[in-house]
Each structure stands twice: as structure tokens, then as C-alpha cells.
Amino acid sequence: MRAIPWTLFVLLPLLGGCVVFEHNPVDQPKCNPNLAGNWMVVGGDLLEDRNASSIQVDAACTVQWHDLQDGRRVHFKALGFDHHGYHYLTLSSADVLALLRLEQNQSLDTEGGAEAAEGDNSVMLLRYQLQGDEFTGEIINPDAVERLIDKGELKGTKEGSSIVVQESPFRLRRWLTREPGVFGKGREGDPG
User: Concatenated DSSP letters for the chain?
Assistant: First the structure.
């Protein structure tokens, strides 16, 4: 069994005040075959029963996330890309919505992509590492991105609690190379 630290569950609620990329940084996100396997949540005091969630990733990177206590589940594709030594998942808005519903104990049994608005190519990025059988993930710090937009170093707008970055895929990849430090636990001052 492979391990996902409980801190990933802490990150999920933070996606509500997130950074959305109007364009995917890559034309064709790919499956990382190293994600395939059965995963369990480990560590942390937030989860009373660390075996309450079962996460399976098949060879095509289809994720089946199943809450074993009440039967809620979500399916989505864990596609992404590698860039300058980092691994990234590109989550569609529908995938993120499905994960938020699962985290917020809302009833659902859906495919993440089923709710995507037509023509919506926006994504959210999760940077991750695989070390042996352990997965660790980081989201973008919206405060750092907002400062870069305010300084004119990044094109984007604030829409509600989200920031929408409106750069071309090429400029996004260049930005990811220049600013790897914008990933972390979320907003400054958030627990993590």
C-alpha cells in the first residue's frame, strides 16, 4: 500500500480560494505511470480512521477515491506534466469541485469531468513529489500570485475568492521555471 499524508486533506479546503489558470501549461497532459497503485492516508490527528479513504489509481491515471465509511466517491483523471524537475497535476474545475464535495461530506457519486462547462479549459495545478511509496502535494500560494499580478509580472485578475491567471501556455511554463517558490501550503498564515 502506498501512502498519501493527511496534509493533502488539509489542502483540499484551501482550493476554494485558489489560483485558476485560464490555459493549461501543456497541450497534452500525460499520465505519470508512477502514480498507479493503491494509496492510503497516513499520519496526522485530523483523521480518526486513517483507512477511511481508499484511493486507487489505474495504469491510465484514472483515480477512484472512495470514502469507505459512507460510500461517497469520485473519479477523475490525474493527468499532468513534468517541468524542470517538478511533477504537476492539472485538475479541471470539475475535478476540483468533485474533490471539494468529497472533502465537505456532500453526497456524490460522479466523474469529475462530467460537470465541466463547455469550452472551460481552465485548470488548477498541484505540484507533487513521489518518494518511494509516498506522495506529497503542494498548491500555489494565492497571496504570492496576487503580488506578482499587482507588480505586473503576471497577467491575471481576481474573481471572487479566486485568482485567474491569463497567460499563454508558453509564458506559464516560463513562469513556473522562474517562480518555483510560489507553491506551498496555501495562503500565508493558513495552517498547514
Answer: -EEEETHHHHHHHHGGG-EEESS-SSSS-EE-GGG-EEEEEES-SS-S-TTSEEEEE-TT-EEEEEETTT--EEEEE-EEEEETTEEEEEEEHHHHHHHHHHHTT---EEEGGGGPPTT---EEEEEEEEETTEEEEEEE-HHHHHHHHHTTSS-EEEETTEEEE---HHHHHHHHHH-GGGEESSSTT---
- Give 43-85 pLDDT, tens digit per residue: 544 444 545 567 889 999 998 887 666 777 788 889 999 999 8
Q: Give dist(CA 55, CA 63) in Å, integer.
A: 7
pLDDT digits (tens, 9 = 90+) for 102-138: 666 554 444 444 444 445 788 999 899 888 888 888 8
- Of the two residues 162 and 172, the one the predictor is more confident about is 172
Residue 175 burial (CB < 10 Å; 0-12/13-18/19+)?
buried
Query: How far is C-alpha 105 from the geometric centre of its chain's CA atoms?
Result: 18
* CA gap 104, 163 in Å, rounded: 22
